[in-house]
Structure formats: C-alpha cells, structure tokens
Amino acid sequence: MFGLFGKIKPVKIRSCNDSRKYGVAAKDVKELLKKGCKLLQLPLSGAHVCLYDDGTEVTDEYFKTLPDNAELVILSRDQTWSGGVVYDISQLLSASLYGDAIVKAARGLLSDEKAPKRRKILTDLMQNLEDRSDLENRTDDEDWFKGVDARFKTKSAYMRYNCESRIRGYMKEVKEPRSVNESSEKAKVRAEFEKASRSLAEMLKNARNNGSYFDRTEEEPDRLCTQEGWFTCQGSFDQELCPSFHSINPYSSQESRVFFSTWNLDHRIEKKRTVIPALLDALQNHKSVDVNLNYFYRMLFTRENLKLVHIVCHKKGAHNLQCDTKEIFRRAGNTQKVEGKKRRLL
C-alpha cells in the first residue's frame, strides 16, 4: 500500500537568489513544491523545480531516479536556472563585496599549487580582483607609476601621453616616407608634399594628437575606454567585433599598463602601404591645396580608420583596402587657375 504513495526522498533545496540550502523530504514533486515554496516563501502557483547542476527540469518520473540529498532549485513561474556553474561564475563576477576574501583564498591555493594551468588561472583571478583602477593619483597608487616619469601625477595624464606618442609616431612616418625621393623627380612635387605634411601636422597639433582616445576622463566618443578605464578589442581590420572578447584595464595595475603597450592602434586602410602612397600619388599632378587633406588626416590619425586591437587580433599581412577615390581631392563647383591653366577641381 505504501508503494502507491511513493518512497519518501530526502533532497536539498534552495532558491535561485540565495545560496542557503534546506533539507526537505517528499514523496513526489507536488509535495516537494508545496513544502519548498512555503519554506522559501515563494508563490506555489507556477512554481517548478530543476537540478542545481545543469538546470534540468525535474518531473515526477525523474524525481524517482534522483539519489538521496540531490541538490535542487525551486523557481517561481518566470524564473529560470542555467546551472550551478553559471551561478558560481556570476557570483565571482560580482565579487567586489568580498573580493579581498577571494584574493586571500586564491593566494593561499597558489602557494601550494604546482600545475602550471591552475597557477595561471589563480594568478589571473588575483590580478583581476586586485583592481586599483579607482585610484587616479600617483600618491594613491605608487606601484602603478613604477617606471613612469615623475612629471606624470595622474594615470589619465600618462595614458593620454601614451596615446599621443603613438599617433605622433604616425606623423613622423608621413614626413619621411621612403617613396618620396624614389617617385618624385621634380622639386615642386617634393615641395607640395612638405606643404601637405605641415598642414597635417598642424591639424594633429590642434587636436592635441588625439590623446583623448586613452584618457578615461574625456567624454564619449572622444575616449576608447569606459569611465573606469576598460578597453575592449575592436577586432582585426576585417572584422566587426573581436571574436575572443579581449579586454583590458591598464588603469588597474602596473602589469596591465605594461601589457597594454602590446595592443595596437591598427590602420584598417594601411598607413604605409596605402594611405601615404595615395597622398604622394595625388600630389604628382596636383597642388596640396587641391588635395582633401582632411580626408588623409582622418585616415592617418583618427578612429575613423584606426582600430584598437589585442596583439592576437593584429593581422600584419596586407589588408588590401584602398582609399576612397571620391575623397582624395577637394570638391568644388567652381574652377581654379593652376599654373596658367584653368581646370575644374574633382
């Protein structure tokens, strides 16, 4: 007769919003939900139960096969459960409330760990939890400034300088392209190229070398990072997004700051192979005032043609992308006298 009612099975239950577990004994899912909802203070209508490990829905038939003390989650009508691993990861991602305890535990495990893979995981965990990105001044985070010139008093000031240095380097390449002397036989062409270079340098100077890209104190869209200092890889030149979701916060630690130097501001339309040669080619038969230098400025120095990429996503082969021929020359509806002749600007 007792077999008709089923065997009473002890299980451990919890809700999806609380890690505390409770022991309950029930002969079927209906009884389990009745007891569990009362204990967890959940509405009985629409409630359902699933496995803690992987979120599998528990039916009456499945309930009979469960081992004693199986861990279950009771959910209300609109709640879902993706599994214990997902929950544990989400808890870890919100570990700011107890980050110090996790770091301490990870450091203790690391001291005795021999396996290289596990040591790497623990080290990365500690590095990300020991986040000092909220500190900005040298006096508050002296470790971050190790190796940084004493004139920099804030992290943002140094990061701005870092970006300016990179982009100023692009200007040097414009001023000294190898192909100038090779392909420009006339002194007039070289002179026009120098005029164009000076104009580009002045435009870049007025934009403060676009150092705002790395400065978290700037407003969007002038910066490439969040207010906290997080940068996200934008993927290689031929991708819309980074498939690996690379991210880094160079404001968080000295190690992250140093590693960020391996990230690249990559030209989609290549600087040396395409943009500079296109500028030089345009000046073979035109004056610098006829060339759309604003377009070349954008292609050389702005995020219109620059992508911030993790070193793994930086493809160094030929991009095979060309400048927009419609943008190379200034547009005008009138004619302009050039060297005794009249021609219409393109």
Compact overview of the structure:
The chain is of the alpha+beta class.
Number of helices: 11
Structural class: alpha+beta
What is the helical fraction, as a range of percent? 25-40%
Q: Widest sheet: strand order?
A: 2-1-4-3
What's the structural domain tally?
A: 3
Principal-axes shape call: elongated
What is the mean predicted local confidence, pLDDT?
Answer: 87
Could you give the count of β-strands? Answer: 10
Oligomer: single chain
**Per DSSP, what share of the residues sits in E-state strands of 2 or more residues?**
5-15%
Radius of gyration: 31 Å
Beginning-to-end CA distance, first to last residue: 97 Å
Order of helices and strands: EEHEHEHHHHHHEEHEHHEEE
Low-confidence stretches: 333-346
Explain what the structure shows:
It holds the Pfam family CIDE-N. Heterodimer of DFFA and DFFB. Interacts with H1-1. This is DNA fragmentation factor subunit beta. Nuclease that induces DNA fragmentation and chromatin condensation during apoptosis. Degrades naked DNA and induces apoptotic morphology. By secondary structure, the chain is of the alpha+beta class. It folds into three domains: 9-87, Roll (Ubiquitin-like (UB roll)); 95-130, no CATH class; 155-313, no CATH class. It has eleven helices and ten strands. β1 (9-14) and β2 form a beta hairpin. α4 runs antiparallel to α5, α6 (155-175) runs antiparallel to α8 and α8 crosses α11. The N and C termini lie far apart (97 Å). The model is unreliable at 333-346 (pLDDT under 50).
